[in-house]
Design a protein that fits this description.
Porin, elongated, 217 residues, two-stranded antiparallel sheet, eight-stranded antiparallel barrel, 10% helix, mainly beta
């Protein structure tokens, strides 16, 4: 039995049958389905074979101090630069430098413009996925040489020391050359300050939250 057209031009089945949807609403639904499939295929498809083992990256970094220590510091922001060599699909080493600026708080309130520096840091990164993917999560362990500068007060906050790093992160490969990422790193740092007294030890425990952009070649 052939359908007839209603006044709006949509086919209507005789005898109370179902109506086939046509027109702008149907086209919109098809477009949404196609776009969703394309988006999922782009996000979760395997990335192209890596163009090389080297990468250089930079990005903003913010420090939150998990434990009160001396000097007592408010959260601060800054930047970082790093170089990475990927030895295998699941292992790389990374050298970096970072600088953040923060103000004193608590007992150090009013001592502003204190610089916190990692010069340099060294991390070993272990990647969790063995198959190539646009998403590349990892964990890291490392060490670093750290320093704290004098702030707006001359009260001996200058200190230098070493610390251990542990963290997690993820990179997303936009192309085979470019990746964007996020990371969170906990640092436990022992410092020697410049007060000259017998009690010249200090410590910091920052959590570093970073946004990363890298070039791979």
């Amino acid at each position: 039995m052939s359908p007839t057209l209603d006044p709006r031009g949509a086919p209507r089945q005789r005898g109370g049958g179902t109506t086939e949807e046509t027109g702008p609403a149907s086209n919109k639904k098809r477009f949404e389905i196609i776009f969703t499939l394309f988006l999922f295929s782009f996000l979760f498809s395997s990335r192209a074979e890596a163009v090389g083992n080297f990468s250089v990256g930079l990005g903003p970094v913010g420090n939150i101090y998990a434990v009160d220590a001396r000097p007592q510091l408010d959260p601060g922001v800054g930047g970082q630069l790093y170089f990475d060599y990927r030895w295998s699909p699941q292992f790389s080493t990374q050298f970096g430098v970072m600088v953040t600026t923060q103000d004193g708080t608590g007992a150090d309130n009013g001592d502003n413009g204190i610089e916190f520096l990692g010069i340099p840091t060294f991390d070993v990164k272990i990647y969790f996925l063995s198959n190539e993917s646009r998403f590349d999560p990892y964990g890291l362990l490392g060490i670093g040489v750290y320093a704290v500068s004098e702030g707006s007060r001359s009260n001996g906050t200058v200190a230098v020391g070493v610390g251990a790093n542990a963290g997690i992160g993820v990179d997303y490969y936009v192309t085979e050359h470019i990746s964007l990422g996020l990371s969170m790193v906990f640092r436990s740092i022992a410092l020697i300050d410049s007060t000259g007294s017998r009690d010249n030890g200090a410590s910091l425990f920052p959590v570093s939250l970073s946004g990363l952009a890298a070039w791979h070649w």
